[in-house]
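Q: A reviewer asked whether we had any structural model of the full assembly, not just the individual parts. We don't, so I'm hoping you can provide one. Inputs are below.
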Amino acid sequence: MRKQQKFMENFIHGVFLLLGLVTVGCVLLITVYLVLSGIPGIRRIGVFSFLFRSTWESTAKEPVFGILPFILTSIYGTAGAILFGVPIGFLTAVYLAKLAPPKIKAIVESAVSLLAGIPSVVYGLVGMLILVPGIRKLFSVPDGASLLAAIIVLAVMILPSIIKVSVTALEAVPQEYEDASLALGATPIETYFRVSAPAAKSGIAAAVVLGVGRAIGEAMAVMMVSGNVPNMPGLFQSVRFLTTAVASEMSYSSAGSLQRQALFSIALVLYLFILMINAALNFFLKRSKT
Amino acid sequence: MKKNQKRIGLVMTAAIFCLTLAGCGQTPAGNSGAGNNSESAKLTGTVATDGSTSMEKVIGALGEAFENQNDGVTFTYNPTGSGSGIQAVQEGRCDIGLSSRNLKEEEAAGGLEATILAYDGIAVIVSPENPVVDLDVETIAKLYTGEITNWKDVGGNDAPVVLIGREAGSGTRDGFESITDTKEQCQYRQELTSTGDVITAVAQNPDAIGYASLASLKDSVKAVTVGGVAPTEDTVKDGSYVIQRPFVLVTRKDTALSDAAQAFFEFATSPDAAELIANAGAVAAN
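A: Here is a predicted structure for the entire assembly that you could use as a starting point for your response.
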């Protein structure tokens, strides 16, 4: 009887291990595939001219593959989204975690969850119909499809992840810290910003990094509002991101061509960015545990 | 109720998936040149097509009619883009590739054959608020290359011209740029990835100009006349409207089509299909 039980235990263990390995296998497969198909393009173009040239003319007779505009656009776009999104997200999180009455908290939290569930193409469409013409009128520029439009869309898109993770971090701050601060005569607001927020800073940093990851990987929504032209980035310039550079040309590039190889190389660069962001996320999460 | 719907949805998805798989797996099964007497025998099997998104309306109408005529045949269309469709037929992943441009030299060299199914006019569109109604090809080229940057130079308002186009590699962009002779010189302000997006963007901006295939034109934008000729089916067909491109069926030279695919090919290129193609907004070649 016991023997059979033990066998069953081991068997179930094996099944779980196998299922776990599926995920690992997928990651490994994608990594290997990306590296294998991304390296040839970079080698043919040359690392330096691929990363640091500012022109991208993939379909010209003498094609030029320089992805500096895409890299800078992705960095600026993400930084801009963080600049708008983090203050709003952080303050919302403080309000939800510490100040909000339960009823309002429930309503706002379900709204935030809903925001997280909206498909990115819907963000893009709304941005295209409202934001782009709005920017055109507000700043009287010839056309509203620009880096600024993409930044605003991305800022809204990263709000849910920033708010949710920050709320969790703030709620995990031990009650004693706050009680002590209040007992010493600090006002509640002083307590939240001087005591609770610093105590939750690793978790909040993790929230920001999560937002960065979401922003840099987004393709569909920014493709629809950013204009998608490979210019060097400027706030009102029509720009193209790393993600959209891959997405917009992939289906048209013929197999085995340098263009397709270069697109895989862009994907590889993007992948390296994501890896760095994940490493940062792990770093912050580990610190928040200790 | 909801659960049931979900289940039905799942079953349908699964069914579509199976059909798609079956369609892709289909290799031309023996028996070459049996298409002529195919009317008498009952056709079975699948016809898998893959390619240009601009051909969706045309190929959808043809596929539906063909399925209605032949109960045993399943028709699939995979809208991936001209390049992908050509690649798919080359690799044998579909029966007929769909391309909204002529084959490139390296593609034709790979043993592919192109048959023109229809012509598609490319309309040059502006916002309905824009007073400009007529442009000629040269002026359009000058606008797109940035030689003319203000609408007042072509009889419009004093406002900068906002150039909207499609992404590099798009069949519509390729068609437009080769006809207007502006390849690699267009100073786009926006490069959008679908015809619908171009129409939306142009409709939103009174200073914008864009291009879209005639078949997908909507009332939210205004098509200008080119050299005095309005883009209509008649003017595309008789060649007086000059901004137009071919819709091409791509097949492999070395392998014969399956019976079903051969029958579809003949149906699509026959004069009977002309009306269907016309209803879908393109102009039949035959």
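A: Points you may want to mention in the reply: The first helix of chain A runs from residue 2 to 45. Residues 2-52 of chain A form one domain.
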